[in-house]
Amino acid sequence: MCALFGVDAAEGAQGMDPDRMLRRIHPDDRAEALVGLQATFAAPGSYTYRYRLLSDGSEFRWLRAHGACFTDEAGRPTHISGVLLTEASANASLEVEIVERLMGALDLARLTNDTVLPRLIEAVLLHAGRELAKGMDRSMFT
Prior knowledge:
Elements: H1 9-13, H2 18-24, H3 27-42, E1 46-54, E2 60-71, E3 77-86, H4 92-109, H5 116-135
Antiparallel strand pairs: 1-2, 2-3
Helix pairs in contact: 4-5
């Protein structure tokens, strides 16, 4: 994900600057993306957004972002994590359905008193994101 936003992986591990991320989003999609990002932090939980991202300095690609905002024990947002899927992916509809179902399961798990179940689903989402990243078109990163 860092490469898509033009951020070094080591820098991205420390967290990405939202303004830097927004600059890579198509100008027509930025306002909606900003509102969505603010809403995600205001009411932590899962999110799904669709926007165009500047992929190589000159070309915009449609992406679908799926993820969640994570909080500390006091309910304060700590970070967001998720996956980005290109809409050109051959398996995009299946990938989107898998992630959407996992996000729905995470939302439901958070409604329970079980503290382990949401963490397990988050781990599965992380694994799914890694597997999706392995299969992504590497040309997006150049």
